[in-house]
Structure formats: C-alpha cells, structure tokens
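Sequence in, structure out. Go.
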Amino acid sequence: MQVYYHSTRGGDEHITASEAILKGIAPDGGLYVPDHIPVLEKSMKELADMDYREIAYEVMRLFLTDYTAQELRDCISRAYDEKFDTPQIAPIVKKHDAFYMELFHGATIAFKDMALSILPHLMTAAAVKQNCSNEIVILTATSGDTGKAALAGFADVPGTRILVFYPKGGVSPIQELQMVTQKGDNTCVVGIRGNFDDAQTGVKQLFADPELRAEAEEAGFQFSSANSINIGRLIPQVVYYVYACAKLTGSGELAEGELLNVAVPTGNFGNILAGYYAKLMGAPIGKLICASNDNKVLVDFFRTGVYDRNREFILTTSPSMDILVSSNLERLIYRIAGEDAAAAAELMKQLSEKGSYRITEEMQERLSGFYGNYALQPETADKIRREFEEDHYVLDPHTAVAAAVCEKYRAETGDDGKILVVSTASPYKFVRSVLPALEGAGGDDDFALADRLRELSGIPEPPAIGQIRNAAVRHNRVVERTEMKDAVRAFLGL
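Output:
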C-alpha cells in the first residue's frame, strides 16, 4: 500500500516520500507525517536472520513507497558500508542490568550517523525522481552531533550545499572541532551567539521566509533540511529499533510475546519518536522511557500534560540534550490529537506565542506508553563511574542519563522487564565529562584526556578523534541569531 505524507498542521498537500524528503518541512511550518503507519510484513524470527542492511530495506520500503526496490537498496548499500567500524552496524552488548545498543560506530561516532549516512542518497535520488534541477541547500541547526554527521554525509555530494548553525559555547570542544574542521567545497559552518533553541527557531524562520526562498529559487537553489524534522531522517532511525528487537529475539534474550522496554536519551524527540513508530509497526516494544537531563521540559510534559519552555536553559555535560523546544514532539501531538491538524496547529501556535500549551486529558491518556524522568549532572557522573567499576564499560554522558533514568524507572514502577538503553555517542566525544566522572580529575586538553581514556579503559581511539587532532580550522564565522539570514545569503552569494 502506498504511503503519502501531509503536514501536521493541515493544508491540502498529499505528497510522496521523495517529495517530502526534498522539501524537508511543510510550507505551513508543520512536519510531514505518513498518512498511516505500515505494519511489518515479516516476523521478528524472520528478521532475526537478516543483517542490518536487509532489515533496513524491510522497514524503509514500507514508508518510502515511491522509491523503487533498486533505488532503495542502492541507498542502503552506500550508506551502511565501511564507514562503520563493525559489520553489525548497531551492535548490542549485554551488561548485568540492561542491553546497550551502540549507535556510535559510524564515521562521526554518534547516533546521527545511522540516519545521516543515508539521507544524502535518499535526497539525491529524490531530486532525480522529482526532476529537480535546482541545487539543494541543506539548512540545519545542531545541538552538537547532527551538524558533523550531516556535514560528513553531504560533503562534496554533487548538486548539494550544506550550512550548519550551532550554538557557540553550547557544544563540546570535540563536537565543535569536528564541525569547524570539516572539508568539502560545498560546506559551511556558522556559530551563533545563543543556544540550540535559538538556532533551531532561526532555521525554521529561514524556511518560512518567502523573500529568502524567492531569492534562492531565482538563483537556482532549493532549501531542505537534515534535521530530524525531515522525514528522511526519521524513518531510517526506526530501523535500529526493529533490528534490536529482531536480534534479541533471535538470540533467545527476548522470548516470544515478551516486550522490550527502551530507554532513550532525549532532546529534540526524534530518536524516541522513531522507537514509537517501530512499536506502532509491530515491534515488541513495551514502555518508551524518555530520559532527560536538567532541562527536563519533556519529563514535566509527560507528568502534567503541560509543555512549558518558559524556564532557565541549563548548559550541561550532555549538551546534545540541552533543548527546551523539542521539534519532533509535534508529530506525537498530532497523533494523540486523533490526527486533528487544526488542534495540533493551535497548540504549536500557543507554543510559539506564549511558550507553553496544555493538552487535553484524553490526549494525555494516549501517552500511557511513555514514561519520563531525568538525571541531574551529579547523578549522570555517578552512573558513569559505577558502570565502569561494575562492568568496565564506559558510557558517554547522554547514555549515562538514560541508564540512570532506567534505575529510577525500575524503582518507581517495580517493572523488572528487560530494558534496551540506546547508546548515542562514543565516550571519546565527551572526554571532559567522562574523565572527571571516572577519576575525579579532568583538564582542558581534550586530546590528552582522550589519551588517558584509552589508557584507563583499553577502548581504542576512534579514527574520528585522530582525524581532528591536527586538522586546520576551516569555518570560524560567528554571528548574532538575528544575522542567520545574512549568513545564508553570503554562503549562496545572493
């Protein structure tokens, strides 16, 4: 059955997957959602015998129905290749109280590689399908990891350019170095004086700016996004949840009829939403555990039904989760509103104008499959230390937040079911937080800290760290948040 896409905020668009991927965001500012969630056509036992690429095909073909089988297989084979340092792509390791699905074995050592390795291929294939003659310009905001993964994916891809905005001072030094040293004649990185929410809001405003869009189109450019607001980013993330359930079923760790709880360190809500979509497809997923850091706007939402970004923005040791406006939550709001686009649009209007909204009791009841809790920075550091002492396993701060929240979930609910923790980044990416948690001391030389982490843990240094040790800085522009439009014009020569 064909799957078509429309905006969470209404409108009369009824477009194909390739059209939605090219556009990135709907003209009315809404996010594209499928007109129905397809059901998996193969059982977990059947999927268990497949490798990651084969499972990716079985999941993605159900959503991206206007891509031919050959087009989709080509995209998948190009994406999940030797860029990953393990043939498993997303290995699952078992520790005494949880399974950890490691999503950081790609080129930029963060989970964003799982989707941003394939998005450029989906997008360029879509451009051919849609007879798009314009050069595609990717405009993206990042809280740290999306930026580098998107830059690496689109660098020197013919027919594309990419401009990434990031909050200056709001990402880890390693994350920043990965971005500002990025090669590629079609790449540009700009820091803004503000936080991630400022960057994300600014990018959305750029998409909604008719004057800028007209200027770009006249010059032969078409805007799109690599953030998870792009459905082409979200759908590939569904794959690894199905993969995890299939592999744990195949190994006998997950019995027939048994549900797997999933804990996800959550910021912009795309990663956990992908897990929700996998559950709707038929994957045996139980509770979706939304783990937040000190910026616990999502936890408060799940517990009270009120989303309120009017609060202090806290810079933490898990910067990719330092977000107060979780864009992908809009897709869930649309779903629990009974797919009522007018209701979803009104709530998003309230968020934009007042900074908050309250959902109905009926909508809140439809969130029963979610659980929200948070771990403060001392709790996160303590979990990193304890996991290393007990299992000689090193967690990055984001994964540690999720692991700490798992303990709170078990204590609060009494649920002793199996839990999969989504491990989103290599500890090498956040050495300034990991080393003090392990040894009580740190420093400000990230590469010296990386050397010490290697000595202490025995974990080989990822190539991504070695590549930036002596790399030249190529992008050093920093602007006010009000100057983002000027930065786009300068990059495109408008």
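Check: Residues 231-250 form the longest helix (20 residues). Residues 75 and 263 are 29 Å apart (CA to CA).
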